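Dear colleague,

Thank you for sharing your sequence with our group. We've completed the structure prediction you requested, and as agreed, I am returning the results in plain text so they can be pasted directly into your records. Please verify that the sequence below matches your submission; if there's any discrepancy, let me know and we will rerun it promptly.
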Amino acid sequence: MNIYKKLGVGVLGGLLISQFFQPEDNFGDYESVKNFLVETNADSNIESILKKACFDCHSDKTVYPWYSKITPINYLISHHVKEGKEHINFSNWINYSIDKKEHKMEELYEEVEEKHMPLKSYKTFHSGARLSPNEIDDLVNWAKKVHGQYKKSLYSK
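Please find the predicted structure tokens below.
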């Protein structure tokens, strides 16, 4: 057996064995985002947009695609979710200060308005997460309104 065949067998064997090791899944439920939705007065349209484009990476509830069980893809997805939740976790909204909520709502509308969110890599594999211009407008306008309410409450103290 030449070196390339041995190398190929080794790589395939390593991939096969690695399938038995999986990162921890982000299996919460949508109840965890209810405080956020109620506090920010998100209507059903906004909730639907957030559910399809934001909550998988920015809450304690991720809906995983079929290929998420394949190593090394599962580690990449797990990393994206962990990183997303570090930026904003809608499931943890109740624990944010008013100042942090105000800042996070500003970031939300800026990122969506500038089309940095949802990430291109996410939209590539989740076509339903591609937001229409109307959905972008709805989400941005809602987030700006909520941001203004938090900002007003900060300055009224």
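Summary note from our side: The first helix runs from residue 3 to 18.

Kind regards,
the structure core
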